[in-house]
């Protein structure tokens, strides 16, 4: 499901249109629920703030600069404090403007974070930092991965829930 409510189905190289239609039919309830969530989020979004495009761009630049200064500090704090749990494998940190992700971790140790995290409460930003750092040890969302997150942030489930419920705001 795309952010604008459209659906994109990607097929394997030798996939058929019949397989795509069957997949959509099999997932129709999931698709419908995601579409309902998207519509609900759009209704909850505040009205336009009245910023000009130039003002919005200037504000984004300030938040990006703040993220570039602040997020690496939080990564360093958790990496150093929990060095007995986390491998020292951060090769670089990037600040991006992803539409659907708060953060990501590559197998080469590159951590990427969304500049919009600067608009979230500090505990939420820290949760995303810890989440991505734990991916350096577990490149999946296995039971071991979540145990790693919980060791560092015992209340991670509440933080994750907050992000799912309020992240679009």
Quickly give the structural class.
mainly alpha
* Main sheet overview: 3 strands, mixed
What Rg do the Cα atoms give? Answer: 19 Å
Instruction: Compute the number of strand runs.
Output: 3
Q: Which percent bin holds the helix content?
A: 40-55%
Number of helices: 6
General shape? globular
Q: Strands of the biggest beta sheet: in what spatial order?
A: 1-3-2
| Low-pLDDT sequence parts | none
Order of helices and strands: HHHEEEHHH
- Strand fraction band? 5-15%
What is the typical, i.e. mean, pLDDT? 88
Calculate the terminal CA-CA distance, rounded to whole Å.
19 Å
What does this protein structure show overall?
The protein is mainly α and 169 residues long. Helices cover 54% and strands 8% of the residues. It is built from six helices and three strands. Strands 1-3-2 form a three-stranded mixed sheet, covered by helices on one side. The two termini are 19 Å apart. The model has no long low-confidence stretch (mean pLDDT 88).
């Amino acid at each position: 499901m795309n952010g604008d409510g459209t659906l994109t189905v990607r097929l394997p190289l030798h996939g058929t249109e019949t397989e795509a239609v069957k997949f959509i039919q099999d997932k129709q309830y999931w698709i419908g629920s995601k579409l309902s969530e998207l519509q609900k989020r759009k209704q909850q979004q505040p009205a336009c703030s009245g910023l000009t495009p130039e003002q919005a761009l200037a504000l984004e630049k300030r938040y990006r600069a703040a993220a570039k200064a602040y997020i690496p500090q939080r990564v360093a704090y958790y990496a150093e404090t929990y060095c007995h749990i986390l491998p020292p494998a951060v090769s670089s940190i990037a600040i991006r403007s992803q539409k659907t992700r708060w953060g990501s971790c590559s197998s080469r140790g590159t951590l990427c974070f969304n500049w919009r995290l600067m608009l979230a409460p500090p505990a939420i930003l820290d949760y995303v930092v810890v989440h991505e750092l734990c991916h350096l040890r577990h490149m999946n969302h296995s039971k071991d991965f979540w145990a790693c997150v919980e060791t560092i942030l015992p209340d991670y489930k509440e933080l994750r829930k907050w992000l799912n419920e309020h992240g679009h705001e």
